[in-house]
Structures are given as C-alpha cells and as structure tokens.
Amino acid sequence: PLCDIGFIGLGVMGKNLVLNLADNGYKVAAFDLDVDKVNAVIAADQEEQAEGAAARIFGCSQISDLVTMVKKPNLYILSVPAGDPVDKVCAALMEAGIGPKDVVIDTGNSLWTDTVRREAGYRGKFVFFSTAVSGGEVGARFGPSLMPSGDQSAWDVIEPVLAAISAKVDPETGLPIERTKPGEVVNEGEPCTTYIGPAGAGHYVKMVHNGIEYADMQLICEAYHLLRDAVGMSAKEIGQIFQQWNQGVLNSYLMEISAEVLLQDDPETGKPLVEMILDKAGQKGTGLWTAVSSLEAGTPAPTITQAVFARALSTLKSERVEAAKVLTGPALETVAADEREAFIESLHDALYCSKICAYAQGFALMASASKQHGWALDFAAIAKIWRAGCIIRAVFLQSITQAYLAKPDLANLMLDPFFQAQLLDKQANWRKAVAKATLLGIPCPAFSSSINYFDSYRTEVLPANLLQGQRDFFGAHTFERTDKPAGEKYHLNWSSSDRDLTKV
Ligand code: 6PG
Q: Could you identify the atom of ligand 1 that is nearest to the CA of residue 136?
C-alpha cells in the first residue's frame, strides 16, 4: 500500500514519532541507515498492536525504495542529527527523484540559520520545512510540543499531521490531557503546535526553549546544592521537598523528574544514585547558541548564559579537585536548626523568582529576534504550546500565556502585573537565599545572576554614566547628556588643560 508519510531516521526520537504517527492513523514508510533500527520500529509496532492487526509501518532499506512507497505529493519527516546529515538526506531524496511539490520536514535540533539557508537553497527543488520537537522520548511517543516554521504553501498538508501527534492541553485549566498508552489517541483539547513563522523562526524558538531549559535545570540544581550543603539534607529528603514544591507554583516536569532522580537508589551500591553520578555536565549546543544569540542581539539573558557556563565549569573536574584543596572558602557550616524552615522557604522563593527571570529573558530574546527578522512571533501562542509535551512544561506557562494575551507587546515578563506582584512579594526571601549562599561560599550562579538581572532592570540610574565617561576619556567615544535631547553626542577634551566640551 502507498504510505502517507516517509520517515527518515529511527533513533530514539524518530522511532517514537513513527509509532505516534501510526497511532494517529498514518501509514508510515520508515528508513534508517541502520537496518536494525528499521526492524526495531516494526517489531515495536507489532508488539504494541493486537495480533492480526493490519501493518501500519513499512520498512525500507534504501531511500530510493522509500520514495516509491509514499503517496504523491510526498511528505517526508526527518529525525536525523543536526548538521550535515540533514543535507545528506535531502541530497539523497533529490537523487531519488523528489520534486517541487514534495515536502521535507526537519525535526532535529538544527541551528536556525541552517534552516533559513536550507529553505532558500532547496526552493524550487522541493519544499523544505522545519518543525522543532520538544519532549524527549516519551513526548515523541505520546505527544510532543512542536514548533513548525517555513513556507506557508505547505502548511495545509502539514498542520493536520502535527496537530494529531502533538500533546493536547485542556484550554480551561492549561493542564495536559494525559495520553500514556500505545494505541491511545487524544482528539480533544488545544494541540501544542502552532505555525511559528517564516523559515528559521521555529528552530529559533526551540533554541530559546532549550536555553530556558538549561536555566530551569541549573536553578533546580542550585536549590539541591544548597539544601544538601547549607541545610545538610540527604538526597531522599531533598527529593521529598521537591515533591512538595511540585504541588505549588513551581509545578513543572523538570521539578517532577528532579525529585524522581533524587529518590532513586543506585542498583549497584544501594546508595542514592545521584551521589554516584559524576558531577560533569554534558551539552549538545542549543543552550550555547541561545547565549551567543543573546550576546549578539544585545538582549541580556544572563541566567541562561550562566547555566551554560555552569555546565562548562562543571567539566573542569580535575582542576576543581585541586582548587578545593587550596582555595578554601568560609568554614562550611549548615544553617542553624531554628532557621531551617525559613531558609528552605527562601530557597523556594529564590527558585521561583529566578525562574520568572529566566523566562523573561527567553521571551525578551525572542522578541528582539522577531523584530530583527520580521517574524511577528505570537508570544501567547508560544507560551500556549509549551504548556504540555515539552521539557519546560510548567503550570506557570498558563500565567505567561495570559500575560501575553493581555499585552502582546509586553516589554518584559517582569512588568506583567501578575509576575510583578510575585517578584515584589518574594524578593526579600530571594535576597536572603542568595546572601546566605554567598556567605557560606556555596555557588549559585543562576540564582545570583537572576537577582542581578532583576535589580539591574529595575534601576533607574545605572553606573553606565561613568562607563561612558571612561570611554570618552580614552577613546573620544562621546556621550549623551541627561539635560539634552537623546542622540546628541558630546565629547570633553580630556587631554587639554581647559577641558572644553564640544557637541560632536
Ligand atoms: C527537548 C530537549 C531535547 C534534548 C536537548 C538537550 O526539548 O526535548 O531539549 O531537545 O534533550 O538536546 O540538550 P543537551 O544535551 O544540550 O542538554
């Protein structure tokens, strides 16, 4: 039978997306360079389906076979590593005869500028479209959050497929509609996908999602570190605290899984597994790209950037082991017993406020990219599709959705009345947590860069006046004056004896 979709790349994400498509009634022709992976997806499908059920997934061992198995116009979905593999597969599809009406969707974590280049480069040969996917293995299987962008001429063909396989949200509560079993399909609720914008926009938004993900993860890690070293709690106790926190404003997928990691024992030694995991963090690049984009755009995302630095610093393990012997900090005391409750409460609030800052930075960054590239991003819609399916899904994305529905051009999330009130209400605790951590010598780079972001953003007169004076002194870089119209440039002749002022 002719298939509805040709799928290329059957790694963890690809395999699960194929099964998800099949559950939603699509016949899929599946290809991977590794034939074992083709066999594995077919075996998984047979295992999940009732005996005697009609096949839904058809394996191919060559891209040229795949092309003959898919209905015209062809729809291909790629789940291959970002970078060269995407172009290699596109070249192979062209060689196998795909044409201008055929659509190829890249679902990898591609660099957004590669996506822009590809859409332009393949124009006329076939329609190159991108759909960034978040949600990991389980999301891919039972409903991810999808960030599509590209040539709108193909959208009518693509939309029903993405809407079917994406996570769904109850529009009233903003909570995910659970789908956990093979064969299950959810047809009601709002799908966690929306057309994001022209080529590159979807991958940019996914990149920022990952930047926020890095910040969210690092913030939770800092709370764990402080509960461990400042309070002296065991991994189990911290896991239980996180479970409690997950019942309130901090409710999120990352909070839930962090609690689970902390509560897990090591099958080898019986100790908490987290204590057996080496403290060297990996990264594949999307957080770094977000940080670089923030620097290039001049739109500060310090919490996200610190989260990337924190991973990099963690990898200097052998240097840290040596430094720990000689760069001694304050004697490490734990928080006094009668201050414990209050300190734990202050950490909760520090985590919450810092998290608001991380999201504020991510949305501000997307706003500046939207302006620069003319994407007209809809931030309420983006917050909506992050409410379920993706890694940063969290209860407070409903409040972010509401903030942008109320004011689509909000300059910064911190200025939304709800988030403003939250920050003002909790800031005393946030300060206490950061101050205590600093006094104890326990690093909390993401907490402290967040509070510095908040304090800098709300400061009417920053010391950049002196900085402009310094620049003018050594390089005649000029300055504007507080008592003259914006844009008028002045220079003081610092080297002359009369130090005269000139309007430049
Ligand atoms: C998601 C994840 C996913 C992936 C990242 C993690 O949204 O589903 O972000 O894209 O897990 O690649 O990246 P690091 O390896 O850089 O942590």
A: 8
Distance 285 CA to ligand 1 centre (A): 9
> Which protein residue has the closest C-alpha to ligand 1 atom 1?
134
Ligand 1, residues at Cβ distance < 6 Å? 109, 134-136, 210, 213, 282-284, 286-287, 390-391
Task: Give the residue numbers marked as catalytic.
Answer: 206, 213
- Burial (Cβ within 10 Å: 0-12, 13-18, ≥19) of residue 268: exposed
pLDDT beneath 50, residues of the chain: none
At 289 the pLDDT is 97
- Whole-number Å distance between alpha carbons of 64 and 29: 12
Question: Helix axis angle, 286-297 relative to 201-229, nearest 10°?
Answer: 110
The CA 468 to ligand 1 mean position distance, Å, reads 40
Comparing C-alpha atoms, which of 177, 137, 145, 150 is closest to residue 163?
145
Residue 413 confidence (pLDDT): 98
pLDDT at 1: 67
DSSP 251: -
Side chain identity at residue 284, one-letter code: K
Atom of ligand 1 nearest to the CA of 209: 7
Helix 155-165 crosses helix 12-23 at what angle (to 10 degrees)?
A: 90
Q: How much is the pLDDT for 52?
A: 83
- 318 vs 312: CA distance, rounded Å: 13
Name the phi and psi angles at 57, rounded to 5: -125, 130
* C-alpha dist (Å) from residue 256 to 55, 239, 251, 366: 37, 9, 8, 27
pLDDT at 267: 98
Can you list the domains of the chain with their CATH numbers? 5-199 (3.40.50.720), 204-371+444-454 (1.10.1040.10), 464-503 (1.20.5.320)
From residue 221, give the alpha-carbon distance in Å to each of 158, 178, 352.
38, 27, 13
Ligand 1 atom 12: residue of nearest CA: 284
Sort strands 57-60 and 127-134 into parallel, antiparallel or unpaired: unpaired
